[in-house]
Fold this sequence. Notes:
The structure holds two protein chains of two kinds. Chain A is an all-beta fold. In chain A, 0% of the residues lie in helices and 52% in strands. Chain A has strands at 4-7, 10-13, 19-25, 32-38, 45-51, 57-58, 67-73, 76-81, 90-97, 104-105, 109-113. The termini of chain A are far apart. The mean pLDDT of chain A is 92. By secondary structure, chain B is mainly β. Chain B has strands at residues 4-5, 11-14, 19-25, 32-38, 45-50, 54-58, 61-66, 71-76, 85-92, 104-105, 109-114. The interface between A and B is medium-sized, with 20 and 22 residues.
Amino acid sequence: GAVVSQHPSWVICKSGTSVKIECRSLDFQATTMFWYRQFPKQSLMLMATSNEGSKATYEQGVEKDKFLINHASLTLSTLTVTSAHPEDSSFYICSASPSYNEQFFGPGTRLTVL
Amino acid sequence: QKEVEQNSGPLSVPEGAIASLNCTYSDRVSQSFFWYRQYSGKSPELIMSIYSNGDKEDGRFTAQLNKASQYVSLLIRDSQPSDSATYLCAVNPSRFSGGYNKLIFGAGTRLAVHP
């Protein structure tokens, strides 16, 4: 149980394009989903928290107009990196929470912006 | 002071030994504590959760929580080379601090189990 999928697992795009990443909870309904970014040899950095049907809450320093989050249903959240630049290249990981406690992570999406 | 602190390591232990990983946190009213394992290039995997003082055992893993000392640890018995990974400590802050289900992660401790 508690399986979270992410798609795509990796993506390479040109600078200036937009990239959409999907996060799905496969066997439970997620009241809350989280989006993290992780640079090599660094810990997870929380970008935003999304609740189904409401606007995402972004962490300080994260540009909400650049990282668009949509939590359309209790099993799907999407992160769109708009006008991507090389410095946005990173490992993006989502997690989903069925309750007020555990978070279960998706396998991650490796984004490379050329 | 960081909210969740861990020794970055690497912690090197021989195969078969007990690996002891430690974590301290600053929010005194934190309620939930988690240990995640992250292999290089992969996403974190939940291995233990603990909510009350004392020990909680699951197979080769034992989590220990001491809220008075704001300290949580993870023991791995009979360590195997496959346990070599980064172990992340995560704390769920108090509901009253506005982060009712947000996790605060430590930087992680790298564990290396050598044959």
